Amino acid sequence: MKVAIQGIKGSFHHIVAQQYFGENIDLLECLSFSEMPNLLLEKKADVLIMAIENSIAGAILPNYALIDDHQLTICGEFHLPIHHNLMGLEGQKIEDIQEVYSHPMALLQCHSFFRNHPHIKLIEDKDTASVAKRIQDKQLKGVGAIASNLAASIYNLNIIAPEIQTIRENATRFFIVTNTENKSSVSSNKASIKFITSNDTGSLAEVLTILAKHNLNMSKIQSMPVIETPWKYAFFADFIYDSYADYFNAINEVKDKVEFLSILGEYNKSKQE
């Protein structure tokens, strides 16, 4: 199976790929999320693994847009506990580190740690693991990376400070994404949809009432601007259900109450939930 990830070996996306699909996979490394959909559309990848939200930093809104704009299908999800570590070359100590490079989300999730080390300059980079690799390849002294234990192992770096995330219970939710046209799965217990309501008073409340009536538990709702229409918003929502029939009936009823509705995917909720 060809699995595309954002980042390189040792990244958190790589960890998810291994835990979800096993180690017998062909890994396709991408430095940006935006280049990933074309790998599916051109049949160079079978699935994508795409981070969608973090328990500290919140939703990654552009990734919702990528899935929607390319009409991709969410076929699964995975919740990964995130353990951030400050690492550098063997022998380096915290006082030796002058600059730390990492992905913006990783820097955001570790801001409290670096308040206690004001001598360190924080610099945004494309990926956590790629910084670790660069430090080893170029033998960069005085430079640190924020990355996973797997990255430290792969690139033979010393962990200077473990578990530096601001909140210990830090987790990221990942979508497993395909290009299949069939978005239905009667064995599913969770779904992600996009809908647009009118601007009439109570239109969103009416939708939520229908969902509750059919015993759907909304686990997330996120609004995003409709680019073509200023001050109009689309809603991306996730629901958990025990009965596919309840979900099916709810969706059919909601369709009559909204201006637009599309199903992004039906899948089984992550075991961590």
Distance between the termini: 26 Å
- Report the β-strand fraction as a percent range: 25-35%
- Give the SSE string: EHEHEEHEEEHHEHEHEEEHEEHE
State the fourth-level CATH superfamily of the largest domain: Periplasmic binding protein-like II
What does the largest sheet look like?
Answer: 6 strands, mixed
Structural class: alpha/beta
List the uncertain runs: none
Give me the count of strands: 15
**Percentage of residues in helical conformation:** 25-40%
Mean pLDDT comes to 94
Say what the CATH topology of the largest domain is.
D-Maltodextrin-Binding Protein, domain 2
Structure annotation, total helices: 9
* CATH architecture identity of the largest domain: 3-Layer(aba) Sandwich
Large-scale geometry? elongated
CATH class of the largest domain: Alpha Beta
Task: Write the SSE topology.
Blueprint: E1 2-6, H1 12-21, E2 26-30, H2 36-41, E3 47-54, E4 58-59, H3 61-69, E5 73-81, E6 85-88, E7 99-102, H4 104-109, H5 111-115, E8 121-124, H6 128-138, E9 143-147, H7 149-154, E10 158-161, E11 171-178, E12 190-196, H8 203-213, E13 217-225, E14 233-240, H9 244-255, E15 260-267
Helix pairs in contact: 8-9
